[in-house]
Design goal:
Shape: elongated
Strand order of the largest sheet: 1-2-3
Mean pLDDT: 87
Largest sheet: 3 strands, mixed
Order of helices and strands: HHHHHHHEEHHHHHE
Structural class: mainly alpha
Number of domains: 1
Number of strands: 3
Distance between the termini: 50 Å
Number of helices: 12
């Protein structure tokens, strides 16, 4: 977390430009937010007095939830990459460079493909309610698990945050690094981020 915070001023110190490889430097800082929920789960796994099978099941459940969430972003951008109309709508080529249009990306994801960037609000509410419902029994639960109740509370309530931080970090890695590397190999042009330009109206040429 300290390294992530220290990395924040690096782009300003070295005067990085608007290339995607520099703009995506915030992935590390943003992704570190998942420590809020992952750290308590690892503490429970390592230090808890619960049976090993229960601790392992908890870690595996968290792992599969994270893998599922990240794979959603991988799959949706893979489908965009295969659909050249959508991909070229997001990454617009000019004679001297290719521009990643952030507003076009937002339109494709939210309006055209109707993809949810965040975990369901019901998941957030359920996690928070479950965590607070254990508060009256905090001492008993802590004694049974063998770890401070704070770890248990955060492990339950912060799971949606883990998925949000790591899911969006996966998206940032894809749009700022993975696909720009593919474009650069093909076009041999720098790829810049355009945050403000409004995309043209999307019209599919398919019948």
């Amino acid at each position: 977390m300290a390294l992530a915070v220290m990395a924040l001023p690096v782009p300003y110190i070295f005067r990085w430009n608007w290339e995607t490889k520099y703009f995506g430097a915030g992935v590390l800082s943003f992704g570190s937010g998942s420590i809020i929920g992952i750290y308590p789960i690892l503490c429970i796994f390592i230090y808890s007095s619960l049976p090993f099978f229960m601790r392992l099941s908890l870690v595996l459940l968290e792992f599969f939830l994270i893998a599922w969430c990240c794979s959603r972003f991988i799959n949706i951008y893979k489908s965009i990459y295969k659909n050249k109309e959508l991909f070229n709508y997001i990454y617009m080529e000019e004679p001297d460079a290719v521009y990643y249009l952030q507003q076009a990306d937002k339109k494709v994801i939210e309006k055209i493909l109707k993809f949810d960037l965040f975990p369901s609000s019901k998941f957030f509410v359920l996690s928070i309610l479950s965590a607070f419902s254990m508060v009256p029994f905090a001492s008993s639960i802590s004694k049974f698990a063998g770890v401070p109740f704070t770890h248990i509370f955060l492990a339950v309530s912060a799971t949606p945050l883990n998925l949000m931080f790591l899911g969006l970090s996966t998206k940032m890695w894809l749009v700022f690094y993975f696909y720009p590397m593919k474009i650069k190999r093909e076009k041999n042009k720098p790829i810049y981020v355009d945050m403000s330009s409004r995309p043209i109206k999307y019209v599919s040429h398919r019948r």
